[in-house]
Design brief:
about 350 residues; alpha/beta; elongated; 434 Repressor (Amino-terminal Domain); DNA-binding; homodimer; 12 strands; six-stranded parallel β-sheet; Rossmann fold
Amino acid sequence: MKGEGKPTINDVAAAAKVSKKTVSRVINKSPLLSEKTREKVEAVIREMGFVPNLQARALALRRNFIIAAIHDNPNAQFLVNVQQGVMEAIAGSEFALMVQPFDRNSASFEDDVRAFLERQRPHGVVLLPPLSSDENLVALCRETGTRYVRMSSIKNDDAAHIVSSNDREAVRQATEYLIASGHRRIGLIDGPVGFTSPQERRGGFEEALVAAGIPLLPELFRPGAYTFESGVEAARDLIALADPPTAIFACNDEMAIGAMITCRRNGLRIPQDISVVGFDDTPLSSHVWPSLTTVRWPIVEMARVAALKLIGPPEAAAEHPWLLPSTLVKRESVTPPA
Amino acid sequence: MKGEGKPTINDVAAAAKVSKKTVSRVINKSPLLSEKTREKVEAVIREMGFVPNLQARALALRRNFIIAAIHDNPNAQFLVNVQQGVMEAIAGSEFALMVQPFDRNSASFEDDVRAFLERQRPHGVVLLPPLSSDENLVALCRETGTRYVRMSSIKNDDAAHIVSSNDREAVRQATEYLIASGHRRIGLIDGPVGFTSPQERRGGFEEALVAAGIPLLPELFRPGAYTFESGVEAARDLIALADPPTAIFACNDEMAIGAMITCRRNGLRIPQDISVVGFDDTPLSSHVWPSLTTVRWPIVEMARVAALKLIGPPEAAAEHPWLLPSTLVKRESVTPPA
DNA sequence: TTGTAAGCGTTATCAA
DNA sequence: TTGATAACGCTTACAA
């Protein structure tokens, strides 16, 4: 013990009368160890309260015990949900969570990511949308030997490197629900260009309309940016139409709520005059009045599984599920049209 | 260069024809170095693209280049704002941000925190409320030699270790604004017990009433828990009173919005029938209808300053401001009583 | 199955 | 102002 400080592997080795390498084997659960030796060393470890030094291990292994969530400013609730999911997966382990935002529009974007990976050497990274569809990032991970898992709306990688939800199918069901309620003029508020998720959500929406024999009218498709304000704008345009829709599907909750508020500011009652459906199931959606019918996106679960794929043995990564279902949550904002 | 991989301090030393310690001095900006040597070494460093290995430094320095935000589940927006503030401070530096939740009600709470600090050895930690008022945590930081800064609503530490807002004063002003608008029966929805922030906010509220000669009526004080649901409950009780208030101050926005929705569900118009004021200025508050008059809490700025105190030289920590003002934001949810 | 020696890439000590 | 040498605490060869 050298008197002071925390015990090191050397102290344990001396006390257990074995070499430090043997202690190292015990720490790393090496299979080639006699049961007797293992037990003896483990007893000493417990007794001395030995905890391996992560910095030393990181230096020797060239890998830190860190899971990094890499993002480009998704909304707050999404980010926090991801953090919660990752924490659930790594709780009780030696891993810790690092959160790192990047500006994908910056000229130094890739250099920034590379610098981060080379500096911090995280054990693995979770790529959040929309960064998860950036193939350059994935190439960067491969190049630096960093394990990665993408969180995405489509299966754009093999099972070991992706966690995805079935947004397309879920939105199709949500739209079918609107149609079954009697709506035939349904407006869509799209998500930002260049994102994968709105493509899928819009796709599901269109599939449902087509299947029901409802024409896809350009006037009912409005651009959006996943922001409250863009929902406001899109809704303003939709209700100003000569023949306005009786229902609106917004590609996320924030826009849906922007749309709801805009409708009400303009004297429309929800859902009596117009129905609204969102996507995400943020806490917000049950905190508005009337509460919002929406699609629940299993972010926490997706993040948890992503982290599990990263911290487990590489060959086991593909064994975790890669698809986690999004599901329709029926609340108050939908009713048959008048 | 040994052919492969990234250049190390040895490669630089060899190329510059100096000892590795001299290179180390250059990296660490040691003052005792001849200008000539410094320039020579810096040129070589640039040329070779040398980047010091953080893991090796961490091992030698017994400190990681990590700023950790330690929290116990504050709301999502708060947490994300803190992350943004810290990132602003450490952008371009070697530091990275780690986020670590703890359950302060767990029996192993202190052991968990200790294990985290001893394992990851962060350079410094930002303690978020309500954990920031836990003296045991601070003792733990001192014991493990971890620098810390508390984010708090009161000045419960010296200037080097705290960043605080003047919630009491800001709420006093907000309440004075209600009183100036003509309100004399004002309900208060409190924050959770054991938190410092609601004490301050309630304190400011009471000060304003007392200064205006308005009696403090127990029936107008309702418990809350900083959650939407608790705002709903409290508002339900308040408007059910024989002589209901004409205005409500809620200790945070989430409860204020819960209160707004409850009032409207019960046929009250906002602000014509009842005014509402919140605290936080979350994005939410401008996304409801009518938009919420509230107190802006400078979380991003507080977190940024907290991180600056941590990453700068210890003796400079006290020189950064410790007080960042909260300010009243007037929107649509307040009007004179009928 | 276990041990020895040589790293991993820095910083600290102390002498020059 | 600089440098040689020993930490820092662990892992990976390679032997035994």
